[in-house]
Amino acid sequence: MDNASSDCPYPGCFFCVMKEVNPSKRRSSVLKIFRDLPSQDEDWQVLPISGLWNTAMAHPNDPEFIDLGIFECMGALIWKGLKTRRWLAHDQNIYIPYYAAHIIGSYTMNMEEFAESAVHAGVISPLVELLRGRLTWVEQRVAVRALGHLATYANTFPAVANHGEVLELSIQLASSSLDKFILKVK
C-alpha cells in the first residue's frame, strides 16, 4: 500500500486503502475512514462515497464493511447534509446524502443481519428525515427504498413501524413523484 499511496495526493485515500493486501491493515484503515469521514470537510469527500455506492450496488451481500461502521458513517453523513447546509452546498457534497441512503438500501436489501446492523447503527431516523422531504424528491426516493428494505424483515420491521409517518409519507411520495419529475423536466 505504501507504494500505491505515495502517488496519491490524499492521505488515507479510500481507494489506496482498498488496495492494501494485508487484511488486518485494510480493516483498521477502513474502520478509521468510516469513523472520520463524517467529521471531514474535504473537497474530495464525494469520491469515496461514490466508490462505496458502486461497491454496494455490485456486491450488496459482501460483509466486509458491515462490521467496520459503514451504517454509522452513512447515517452521520445524511445528518450532516440535513443539518449543515454550507457543507451540503460545497463542491459535490450535494450528492452525499443520496449516495449514503442508496448504500444503506443496497446493503440491506438481501441480508437480514445487515438490516439488523443498520437499525442498530441508527439509520432509520436520518432516512425518515430524507423521506420527509428535507432535501429533494430524489433523496426521498432512495430513503423510501432503504426503509422498504428494512421493513421487509421480521426483526427490523418494528423499528421502521415505530415511525408511523413512514407509510403516509411513502404514499404521498408515490402519488406525487411523477408530477415532481415532470415539473423538473419541463
List keywords for this structure.
186 residues, Leucine-rich Repeat Variant, 12 helices, disordered N terminus, ARM_7, ARM-like, ARM repeat N-terminal plant domain-containing protein, ARM-type_fold
User: What is the count of distinct domains?
Assistant: 1
CATH architecture: Alpha Horseshoe
Which structural class is indicated by helix and strand composition? mainly alpha
SSE string, helix = H, strand = E? HHHHHHHHHHHH
The mean pLDDT is: 87
* Total helical elements: 12
What is the C-level CATH assignment? Mainly Alpha
Q: Runs with pLDDT <50, length 5+?
A: 1-5
What's the overall geometry? globular
> For the CA atoms, what is the radius of gyration?
17 Å
**Which percent band covers the strand fraction?**
under 5%
CATH topology: Leucine-rich Repeat Variant
Between the first and last Cα atoms, what is the distance in angstroms?
Answer: 49 Å
Number of distinct beta strands: 0
Largest sheet: none
**Helical fraction:** 55-70%
